[in-house]
Amino acid sequence: MKLSYIAFGSNLNYPALQLLKAFHALSVLTSTTIIGESKIYCSEPIGPAGQDNYYNAVVSIQTTLSAHELLDCLQSIELQQDRVRSVKWGPRTVDLDILWYDDRVIQTERLTIPHQEIMHRSFVVYPLLSLDVNWVLSGESLQEIARTLDANSLFVIAENFKDLAQIVSES
């Protein structure tokens, strides 16, 4: 089994519901088990102006899938949720990124692991911290990385996906 961290993001079509759908799809993925989930955060968008805020989370999984097989599965989930890739960093129903895969470095045309933006995104670092406060990336602890990031626009909206489901059911 390989350990991997997957980032979730959404800012279209009721983002909380989009995250829940993606979480459920990941939870039933063959050869994959969710072993941890972060808090759910709301963050300001990066990219084109005029976008709604994003909902973000990270889950840890164990899988027997290769990194490329996992990428294929994640992209299939995105397509099932009508993900459209028309504008870089533009609005999306759901975005699923492999942040890290079994302490491997992978650079292909389709996949870069560790994800190249981990260290620059508070909406990734803080959810990762809620999973593992001792995690080290490229010789630097997540806690050290977090101190360099602006988290002023980041706030927790749910403690986990179960709480997020409760919020969705009440609205």
Protein model, in words:
This protein has helices at residues 15-27, 67-80, 122-131, 142-147, 161-170; strands at 2-10, 32-37, 40-43, 54-63, 95-101, 106-107, 112-113, 136-137, 140-141, 155-158. It is an alpha+beta fold and 171 residues long. The protein has one domain (2-170): Alpha-Beta Plaits, CATH 3.30.70.560. Strand 8 (136-137) and strand 9 form a beta hairpin.
Main attributes of the structure:
28% strand; 171 residues; Alpha-Beta Plaits
Q: Care to give the gist of this entry?
A:
The protein has 171 residues and is of the alpha+beta class. It has helices at 15-27, 67-80, 122-131, 142-147, 161-170, and strands spanning 2-10, 32-37, 40-43, 54-63, 95-101, 106-107, 112-113, 136-137, 140-141, 155-158.
Q: In terms of topology, how is this protein built?
A:
Elements: E1 2-10, H1 15-27, E2 32-37, E3 40-43, E4 54-63, H2 67-80, E5 95-101, E6 106-107, E7 112-113, H3 122-131, E8 136-137, E9 140-141, H4 142-147, E10 155-158, H5 161-170
Antiparallel strand pairs: 1-4, 1-5, 2-4, 3-4, 3-10, 6-7, 8-9
Helix pairs in contact: 1-5
How does CATH name the architecture? 2-Layer Sandwich
Judged by helices, strands and strand pairing, the structural class is: alpha+beta
- Uncertain runs are none
Number of helices: 5
Global mean pLDDT: 92
Terminal-residue CA separation = 38 Å
- The level-1 CATH class: Alpha Beta
Helix content range of the residues, please?
Answer: 25-40%
CATH fold-type name: Alpha-Beta Plaits
User: What is the name of the CATH superfamily?
Assistant: 7,8-Dihydro-6-hydroxymethylpterin-pyrophosphokinase HPPK
Number of self-contained structural domains: 1
The shape, in one word, is globular
Q: Write the H/E string, N to C.
A: EHEEEHEEEHEEHEH
Question: Gyration radius, to the nearest Å?
Answer: 15 Å
